[in-house]
Amino acid sequence: MRRVRADGTEFWSARDLMPYMGYANWQQFKVPIDRARKSALNQAAEVDQLFSRSTNKTGGRPFEDFALTRFAAYLVAMNGDPRKPEVAAAQAYFAVKTREAGLVARTLSTRVSVRQVKRAGRSVSGSLCFGLFCESQKNLG
């Protein structure tokens, strides 16, 4: 489902994502896409970059599609109908992945901060706390 452009950037086709989110037709799926676009706009995000609109033609009349960034796909999932099991599963997936990414970022940030303190050779008393992580002074040496 994930696609990669020639420049290495990844995206998801909204048309490809639609059945995986439990939507049978484009008109129904357009509702969470439009809500997601409004959410991005309210966050002062570059909506046209997150949701790159395209028109495709496959022998018949042209049809609308969007190339979604990972963040745009997340917003679409969060704005989908939670009564659909597929949407609920997508929402749970993004919630878990967001939590994992936050923990990794916090751990990396903490490790860098502790190393910086060690390298600086400063005298530190008590403990250093970064978010939920605390390192006692004895562990710095």
3D architecture notes:
It is built from five helices and six strands. The chain has helices at residues 14-20, 26-42, 47-50, 70-78, 85-120; strands at 2-4, 10-13, 51-56, 63-68, 127-130, 133-136. The strands form two sheets. Strands 1-2-4-3 form a four-stranded antiparallel beta sheet. Strands 5-6 form a two-stranded antiparallel ribbon. The protein is globular and about 55 Å long. The termini are far apart.
Offer a few descriptive terms.
141 residues; alpha+beta; four-stranded antiparallel sheet; two-stranded antiparallel ribbon; 5 helices; 19% strand; globular
Radius of gyration: 21 Å
Strand order of the largest sheet: 1-2-4-3
Basic shape: globular
Task: Quickly count the helices.
Answer: 5
In round numbers, the mean pLDDT is 82
User: How do the SSEs run, as a string of H and E?
Assistant: EEHHHEEHHEE
Q: In this structure, how is the largest beta sheet organized?
A: 4 strands, antiparallel
Quote the distance from N terminus to C terminus.
48 Å
Structural class: alpha+beta
Strand content: 15-25%
Q: Which blocks of ≥5 consecutive residues have pLDDT under 50?
A: 122-141
Short overview:
This protein is of the alpha+beta class and 141 residues long. The protein has 5 helices and 6 strands; from the N terminus they run ββαααββααββ.
